[in-house]
Structure formats: structure tokens, C-alpha cells
Design a protein that fits this description.
about 140 residues; 1 helix; mainly beta
């Protein structure tokens, strides 16, 4: 199973581009704080590259900016390439299936500006219908 869930802050404004076939694609990087901290040291963060497609890309570009807190759910994707010196390198990025606001409105991290009404999240998934879930009384535990 390839599933990643991250919460962090955008380190720069998201970059929206359009493919030749007209699909929106948005790339951004988030800083995710590590859960542990050695005594006497500053808290460290990991910087994770994220890519969002289609309406999810438009959502991120419209409502998030540098410093905004964001929650991302997606999958890890790897790639290989050669750098300018001919060395093989591996790249890692999260392909976002779902993005959400997180943080409070008072800290200004939601990315909303001037009364825009924003949805709480955007998901590429078309099926969030849980009506077929089995009743808890039927579960064996």
C-alpha cells in the first residue's frame, strides 16, 4: 500500500502550469516538522515536493500561498534522472489525491483572501460515499 499523509507549510507559492493537452498541474514544496527533537537542538523539518493535478491543482493555487498550512494525502512516486555531471539521481515526490486546509483562521494560514468562500478540501476521488459500510453490530470485534 502506498499512502502518505502529511501536514506542513508551503515554503513558496505554488506553481500552476498547464500541459499541452490542457490539464492543470501544480507543484509545491512543504516543510514538515519532525516529531522528535534532540535536547539542545532546534526542531528539524523535512522538505517534501508535492504535485497536484486537475481541479486539485487549481484548488491549491487559488487558496494557498507561501507559509500556508496544508494537509496532503497521496502516494509516493519515485523517478530517476541524470544530473549535469552524468550521475544517476533519484527523485521523490508526493502525488496529491486530496488537499485540505489545516490550522486556524486566525493564524492566516488558510490562504483565504478577502471573503472568498473556499471548500474545506479537494479530493480527486469521486467516491466518498460511505453508505455501503457495514453496521458496527455485524463486526466480529
Amino acid at each position: 500500500m502506498n499512502c502518505c499523509v502529511l501536514t506542513g507549510r508551503l515554503v513558496a507559492d505554488p506553481e500552476l502550469r498547464t500541459t499541452p493537452s490542457g490539464l492543470s498541474v501544480c507543484r509545491f514544496r512543504i516543510a514538515v516538522d519532525r516529531a522528535y527533537q534532540k535536547s539542545g537542538e532546534e526542531r528539524k523539518a523535512d522538505f517534501i515536493d508535492v504535485v497536484a493535478w486537475r481541479n486539485n491543482a487549481d484548488f491549491v493555487t487559488k487558496y494557498f500561498h507561501k507559509g500556508s498550512m496544508i494537509a496532503v494525502q497521496g502516494s509516493l512516486q519515485t523517478g530517476t534522472y541524470e544530473d549535469k555531471n552524468g550521475n544517476k539521481r533519484t527523485s521523490y515526490e508526493i502525488v496529491a489525491d486530496r488537499t485540505e486546509f489545516c490550522g486556524s483562521k486566525s493564524d492566516g494560514s488558510s490562504g483565504q483572501a478577502g471573503g472568498n468562500s473556499a471548500p474545506a478540501s479537494y479530493s480527486n476521488s469521486t467516491s466518498d460515499d460511505f453508505s455501503s459500510v457495514v453496521d458496527d453490530d455485524d463486526l466480529p470485534f
